[in-house]
Design brief:
The chain has about 120 residues and is mostly helical. The protein is about 65% helix and about 10% strand.
Length: about 120
Amino acid sequence: MAGDTQLASAIRHLVDCISVVYACRGDIALQEVKSMTTMHRASTSVTPRQLEVLAFLARREHWSVGEVASALGVSSAAATKAIARLERKSLVTRSVDRMDRRCVNVRITRAGTDVIRQTIRSV
């Protein structure tokens, strides 16, 4: 339980850091995040933006695509594209909501959580 709390806290911190970096796109900080994730990209092919999506998804059990898009400040189409790429890497899963078949829920997988843990360790 304490490990879950620490992971959740680290994920929130990582999301906050990545959000700041994306707000300062031209800044040296973005280059630093890219260099930190280079070693992870070799094995998991995760970009900094995909890492941001994973960190966001790890905050709770599931999210709708619309919620992901809204939180990241992108269109639903852009969020869907990012989620599809992560799904092909088996880092997230998508499923149709049982109550509203128009809604698609997204969940981070164990492999996705492992990518976040590896990134947190390297920071």
